[in-house]
Design a protein that fits this description.
The structure holds two protein chains of two kinds.
Chain A: H1 5-24, E1 35-40, H2 51-58, E2 72-75, H3 81-91, H4 95-106, E3 115-116, H5 120-129, E4 133-139, E5 151-154
Parallel strand pairs in A: 1-5, 2-3, 2-4
Antiparallel strand pairs in A: 1-4
Chain B: H1 10-24, E1 32-47, E2 59-74, E3 77-88, E4 95-109, E5 113-123, H2 146-149, H3 156-160, E6 161-173, E7 176-185, E8 188-189, H4 192-198, E9 205-221, E10 226-241, E11 248-263, E12 267-282, E13 288-304, E14 307-317, H5 326-332, E15 340-350, E16 356-366, E17 384-395
Antiparallel strand pairs in B: 1-2, 1-17, 2-3, 3-4, 4-5, 5-6, 6-7, 7-9, 8-9, 9-10, 10-11, 11-12, 12-13, 13-14, 14-15, 15-16, 16-17
Classes of the chains: A alpha/beta, B mainly beta.
Chain lengths: ~160, ~400
């Protein structure tokens, strides 16, 4: 198929971009050695959320749980170490990518931003006291466990 | 025909009335809501041609500020609105306007699939950045790539938002999330500023936009580290010149955009390609049947936390079979440089915290197709020119 020189240049440019993307794909998020525990409030009654649910919730795509309770998402600040680990390990993405997605929703009127808490202590307090809440904290990995895992902690009213 | 194109049309008033009636039945204290906003001030300084006002002497005529609110009326019903004030030299002097005002009813919301409908004035999902183009934090620099987002070509109003309805939905499967959004709009008129960019010199009249449809099919991986998509937009522009001016035109536009975005730990790559097809009649001239295209590639590099270096090459062509404009110049005797724009840009962004951002960009531009006629009245355009821009912005 004959392509005129300008069209050849267009196709070459597109091919170059695709090749460049494939090269850059080598920089995908890597798992860390920490355990991130997903926190939910006392009224949680479902099985632990899988990655698909976590992604849907933390990209603010779903606003209600199956039982109709509003989803209340709590996150640590974008530059917090634990937030970075949570993004990479549990969601397979980066803090700034999530922030861009939240900003797009907020500035087009198509969703709310998650609530940012200052530290893990405030995270526990807010999740415990808010119906439908979900968040995350770091926990030390038990020495016998060889690989990171998603665990789910349900905070009871008396929990610290 | 309305002389105030940004007045809310009748369907939007009906939607607002519906919202009020629903609110009356709901205790106000129980409703969840958020308020956000932003304010950006820019500075442009150029040699050669003007942009964003008289930039050859330095221009501050570039600012954007907005305030929005979102209210969760019911878990499946969100009501949002944003007001915006914007100045972009002579290409945008409209002042305060309603940016969006919508009701979002999500009738399906599970982790595997979601779907809904938005009614009112809704931002169009088109390409990577159209939805949030007025907020500098959510676009790829102080300026948008002109090859795709056509700010200076006078198509802003057509691209930006629809007064009508948008259907959206998505499916999550494994690491992927695929989404489709389709929007249609009631017919509307272009504002005075937009008409100035599109109308030939000496012609005044009204331009109506009808048969409007915009759609985007997009796939995301891992919550967004890879995004690629296909966007489509169509519109019919109908020009009725003022009495006494024998110039009418009817133009069918179709835009196709291919988009790619990859976000890595330290790098982000964005690339888009657009094909624009125009077909129609202009009185007293041969029928129009032309294809223009353009595209850009941008690389962002996160030097260190808070600092991003970015570079972009953005090129657009009025005729994809005559990219250097020589055929056009030979046929019409006009300058070939008015048929393309090639923009090489380098920028630096600093975000000291979650609220503030500062941007600096230097553009070296070859070609004059993206020049704003109103900013460059009475002077012949320079084929090659340089533009330096700064912007500071605050968001909450």
């Amino acid at each position: 198929m004959y392509l005129s020189p300008p069209r050849q240049r267009t196709w070459s440019a597109l091919l170059l971009i695709v090749l460049l993307s494939v090269l850059l794909a080598a920089t995908s998020p890597k798992a860390s050695a920490e355990d991130i525990e997903v926190l939910v409030g006392p009224s949680w009654s479902a099985p632990p959320p899988d990655r698909q649910v976590l992604r849907a919730v933390f990209t603010m795509r779903i606003r209600t749980w199956p039982d109709g309770t509003p989803v209340r998402v709590f996150v640590l600040p974008d530059d917090h170490e634990v937030h970075g680990i949570f993004c990479r390990e549990q969601l397979g993405t980066y803090p700034y990518v999530l922030r861009n997605a939240w900003d797009r929703m907020v500035f087009t009127g198509t969703g709310l931003a998650p609530l940012t808490v200052r530290d893990e202590q405030e995270m526990r307090t807010r999740v415990r006291n808010t119906p439908g809440a979900i968040g995350y904290v770091r926990v030390a990995r038990p020495s016998q466990a060889p690989t990171p895992s998603t665990s789910l902690a349900r905070l009871r009213p008396g929990d610290r | 025909m309305s002389t105030y194109p940004n007045q809310m049309p009748e369907p939007a008033w009906r939607v607002a009335a519906l919202l009020m009636s629903m609110l009356v039945g709901t205790p106000v204290a129980a409703l969840d809501y958020q308020v956000h906003g932003f304010a950006s001030q820019g500075f442009a300084w150029s040699e050669g041609n003007n942009a964003f006002g008289n930039s050859r002497s330095g221009s501050f005529k570039l600012y954007e500020a907005g305030l929005n609110g979102s209210l969760v009326v019911r878990p499946d019903l969100l009501a949002s609105a944003q007001v915006l004030v914007r100045d972009a030299g002579a290409t945008d002097n409209q002042g305060l306007r309603l940016d969006y005002a919508l009701l979002d009813y999500q009738f399906l919301a599970t982790a595997e699939a979601n779907a809904g409908i938005r009614l009112g004035r809704v931002k169009n999902s088109f390409g990577l950045f159209n939805e949030s183009r007025d907020v500098v934090f959510t676009r790829p620099g102080i300026t948008l790539p002109q090859s795709i987002y056509l700010d200076s070509y006078g198509f802003r109003r057509i691209l930006f938002a629809s007064d009508g309805a948008q259907l959206y939905g998505g499916l999550a499967h494994g690491d992927q999330y695929s989404s489709l959004s389709v929007a249609s709009s009631v017919n509307r008129s272009l504002s005075k500023d937009e008409k100035e960019l599109l109308l030939p010199p000496g012609v005044t009249g009204d331009i109506n936009v009808d048969n409007f449809l915009v759609a985007r099919l997009q796939n995301e991986t891992n919550g967004g580290t890879w995004r690629y998509g296909l966007s489509y937009l169509q519109a019919t522009l109908d020009l009725q010149a003022d009495p006494g001016i024998p110039f009418d035109a009817n133009l069918d536009l179709q835009l196709y955009v291919l988009s790619l975005r990859h976000d890595g730990e330290r790098y982000a790559l964005s690339a888009e390609y657009e094909l624009m097809s125009s077909r129609g009649k202009v009185s007293g001239a041969p029928d129009i049947n032309s294809r223009g295209d353009g595209g850009y590639v941008q690389l962002d590099y996160r030097l260190r936390p808070g600092w991003t270096l970015y570079g972009r090459y953005d090129a657009s062509f009025a005729d994809w079979s005559d990219r250097d404009g020589r055929e056009y110049a030979a046929t019409t005797g006009s300058d070939r440089h008015g048929r393309f724009t090639r923009d090489l840009m380098l920028g630096l962004n600093w975000k000291p915290d979650a609220h503030w951002g500062v941007w600096a960009e230097l553009h070296h531009i070859d070609g004059t197709s993206s020049l704003s006629p109103s900013d460059n009245r009475g002077r012949p355009p320079e084929d090659q020119w340089n533009l330096f821009m700064l912007m500071a912005s605050y968001r909450f």
